[in-house]
Amino acid sequence: MSLVAQLQAALGADAVLIAQADVAGHVQDWRGRYRGPAACVVLPSSTRQVAAAVRIAGQLRVPVLAQGGNTSLCGGAVPWPDGAAPMLLNLARMRSVRSIDAANNSMEVDAGCVLASVQQAARERQRLYPVSLGAEGSCQIGGTIATNAGGTGVLRYGTTRENVLGLEVVLPDGQIWNGLYRLRKNNTGLDLKHLFIGSEGTLGVITAASLKLHPLPTAQAVAWLAVASPRAALQMLDLCQTRYGASLAAFEMMNGLQLRNVLEHVPGRRPPLPAAYDWHLLVELADTRAEPALTAALEEVLLQGLAQDLVLDASLATSGAQRAALWAVRHSVSEANKKAGIGWTTDCAVPVSAVPEFIARATRAVHRTLPGLPIAIVAHLGDGNVHFIPLLSFGQWNALAHGPATAHAVQHAIHEVAHALGGSFSAEHGIGQLLTQEMALFKPAVEIDMMRGIKGLLDPHQLFNPGRLLPATPHRPKGVSSDE
Ligand SMILES: Cc1cc2nc3c(=O)[nH]c(=O)nc-3n(C[C@H](O)[C@H](O)[C@H](O)COP(=O)(O)OP(=O)(O)OC[C@H]3O[C@@H](n4cnc5c(N)ncnc54)[C@H](O)[C@@H]3O)c2cc1C
């Protein structure tokens, strides 16, 4: 029997999509930059169904591509354009919150749950699931775990990795591993969940997760600040951390171009400050103490920043609606850039103290190739993650000779700057199909070899998301030159 016939027999005909119109939304990424054919799209309703589908694909040696909300920014969740078409497994039907254990500060969810619905379920029990990002209304918990997503809460709560207690995974041979532990301490050898966190669907299908919850902050204070420079922003970060400690929940930065893009291209977004400044910060304090005290504390540091000429202007939210409006501006940057033109998005991490140097050197590197090209910058400054985005209008892109090769060269030059400063070319979005060759250049050979070894052990037929994460060609260590 064919793949489709076997899947229909095992899972039911309505769980297997083959019509062009039904699969269309699954085989192209969010920005329309990557697309490829799928053998079929499977919508399992349970872990057992995932295991059955994986076994069938394995027997027929059909590649398997797990897909969550398909919000990957590096082509991670859509089929590759050449090679064998995969069975695409989308977990959208697996969206139960299995249980919430408030006393243990944990919850167990199906991997297909949308991130925002998990946050909401936790909130209803006065708990916080702290992973938060612009795509939270569409991305799935399984996808955030498979990419070790970051977002705006990392400064205080860490990345997804730090908020996962246990996993359930269907392995490439169809076995189900139930590792849904809820423990904070469990020193019984290797902690295997970490193999799957950040593995981008190359080692198995994550079907459920046990997540770490935190007390729900009952008070927030949010301010939008214009600052003199990235260095002034760092000084404000230092002031805030010294003054507020763990109450500092977010510290985000963007440049003037990025803010203007949001205001121009996303309907309903209002300017947080009356004038146009070059550098902007969004600062949030969150705690369980009284809100007026928190707002007064934030005001105090803003005044200190103004007195030291670090802060040029500031707007303090005075209601929940105003806080939400400020955050809406921050969460609209990807949508705005998608509408503004072709952004050569990069996702670098550097030591926090090196962010101003990174921005200065990366700007020079871009302008050596394309003098004066506008660059949108949006950074999770509190954790040193900078999205440095050379941005071409659609007209500039169409007129550019050798566009893809130029984009690759410019992005590589930015990655080299990060590397020279002790940073990473991939902070939170993952590798997908965009950055596999950068893995070959920047990742030590011994690390690539260990990853290949683990991949070979779990997926000996190389069926799970082939061509993603690891470079296609054998690793050849290569010198990485400085940007200067
Ligand atoms: C507007 C916008 C804002 C964003 N902001 C951020 C941000 O601030 N921080 C950040 O980190 N990312 C951000 N992203 C990127 C993206 O949202 C995250 O990478 C997210 O974690 C992907 O989740 P997903 O469910 O959409 O996964 P998908 O895109 O569907 O898949 C991503 C990868 O995970 C694998 N995968 C998916 N589900 C499973 C599963 N159940 N088991 C095994 N493997 C699986 C896929 O094979 C693929 O390799 C943003 C994206 C957009 C569009």
Tell the overall outline: globular
Report the β-strand fraction as a percent range.
15-25%
Determine the number of helices (DSSP H or I, runs of at least 4 residues). 17
The appropriate CATH architecture of the largest domain is 2-Layer Sandwich
Number of domains: 4
Please write the CATH class name of the largest domain: Alpha Beta
- Amino- and carboxy-terminal Cα gap: 60 Å
Oligomer: single chain
The percent of residues in helical segments reads 25-40%
The chain-level mean pLDDT equals 94
Bound molecules: flavin-adenine dinucleotide
- The Rg value, from CA coordinates, equals 23 Å
**Could you please say which CATH topology of the largest domain applies here?**
Uridine Diphospho-n-acetylenolpyruvylglucosamine Reductase, domain 3
* Spans where pLDDT lies below 50 across 5 or more residues: 475-484
Secondary structure class reads alpha+beta
Number of strands: 19
- Please outline the major beta sheet: 8 strands, antiparallel
Pfam family, one: FAD_binding_4
Protein name: FAD-binding oxidoreductase
Keywords: FAD, Flavoprotein
Domain FAD-binding PCMH-type: 34-216
Keywords:
single chain; 484 residues; alpha+beta; Uridine Diphospho-n-acetylenolpyruvylglucosamine Reductase, domain 2; Uridine Diphospho-n-acetylenolpyruvylglucosamine Reductase, domain 3; Alpha-Beta Plaits; eight-stranded antiparallel sheet; five-stranded antiparallel sheet; 35% helix; 20% strand; disordered C terminus; binds flavin-adenine dinucleotide; FAD-bd_PCMH_sub2
